[in-house]
Structures are given as structure tokens and as C-alpha cells.
Amino acid sequence: MSEYTATVEWQCGGDDFLGNRYSRKHSLRFDGGAELSGSSSPNVVPLPMSDASAVDPEEMFVASLSSCHMLWFCRLQPRENFASIAMLITRLESWPVTPTATPQ
Fold it and tell me: Is 29 left (phi over 0), alpha (psi -120 to 50) or beta?
């Protein structure tokens, strides 16, 4: 059985955690050595508490589905004797986001 691990590291620093005014920026490390900067989406938690340059959970979710879809399609190509190689790009055009909490 395969095992997959990821480490999420976040530090509050001197931010106002109890007042809900703290940075959501964190780091993500995967078992293969890849490392990403993560954060909440600025569409959900306003700047500067979010980091627009970091990957947010919604983006990671869409990317994981897109990656699985592409790999599944690549696996079908040789089995079905497809003559050409195609690249699939799965894109979520819009995802309605309603903030659940507004920092004070």
C-alpha cells in the first residue's frame, strides 16, 4: 500500500490571532521534496492576511483533479491506440465564493 505525506507549517508570529487579524500564509512540503507557499484565497480572507502569490486550497483542489484527469487520459491513449497525443487543460471558470467570516 502506498503512503503519501505532506507537512503544513504555519506560524502566527506577533499577529492578532484572537482578533482574527493574522497571516494565513504557510508552507507545504511533500514527501518527494516539493515545497509550495500556501495561503487562504484573497477572495475569502482579505489582503494583507492572505497572500495572493501563494497557492490556496481551492487552487490545489482544482489542480489535483486536473492532474488526475490528465494522467487518466494519458493512460487511455496507448490502451485505446490513439494516434495523437493531446494535452488536456481542466479549468474551473468560476467558483462562487462567499466569505464566511469578516475579520474585524
Answer: beta
Q: Provide CB contacts within 8 A for 55, sequence distance 6+.
A: 28, 36, 37, 38, 39, 63
Residue 61 in grid coordinates: 483542489
On the question of a cis peptide bond just before residue 48, with omega within 30 degrees of 0, the verdict is yes
| Cα–Cα distance measured from residue 35 to residue 38, given in angstroms and rounded to the nearest whole number | 10
Q: In the chain, where does DSSP find H-type helix?
A: 57-79
Question: For the chain, what's the residue count?
Answer: 104
Tell me the pLDDT tens digit for each residue of 25-82: 999 999 999 999 999 999 999 999 999 999 999 999 988 988 888 888 778 777 766 6
First and final C-alpha spacing in the chain = 46
* pTM exceeding the 0.90 threshold for the entire prediction: no
**Alpha helices (runs of H) in 18-102, residue ranges in sequence order:** 57-79
